[in-house]
Amino acid sequence: MDCLSFIAEQRIAQAIEKGELKTTGWENRPLPLDDDHMVPDDLKMAYKVLKNAGYLPPEIETRKEITRLEQLIAQTEDEHQRLQQMRKLSVLMMKVDANRRTPANIAHDDEYFRKVVERTSVRSGDTKK
């Protein structure tokens, strides 16, 4: 065991004795790993540092925006707003696909979008009395 590992083990043991570190939920179990299998090996550490600092890669931010738009589309009752959000969603999906070597599989819920489009009928010049 090298010096750094020895010091780390001592500090962990001291923290447990003082009650500063609770191990009841994780004792004899591995810690959960981040799902970073899509990140290239040479960028994993940089992404982890950025993630811990509160920053996200642009593709992840775009995916969050896509999820937000999908929820907004599902909840919106106004057909014009729904159509506008669907256009934004389409543009974001094309943006994600354009930035990748292989197309992203984020349009996996085609059945959902088909049903939304079937329910959406925009009437121009239609006024309620």
Automatic annotation (TrEMBL):
InterPro entries reported for this sequence: DnaJ_C_subfamily_28, DnaJ_homolog_subfam-C_membr-28
Coiled-coil regions listed in the entry: 59-89
Superkingdom as given in the UniProt entry: Bacteria
Keyword Coiled coil: yes
Every DnaJ homologue subfamily C member 28 conserved domain range: 7-73
Pfam families registered for this protein in UniProt: DJC28_CD (PF09350)
Keywords tagged on the record: Coiled coil
Keyword Coiled coil: yes
The protein, known as: DnaJ homologue subfamily C member 28 conserved domain-containing protein
Organism: Desulfopila aestuarii DSM 18488
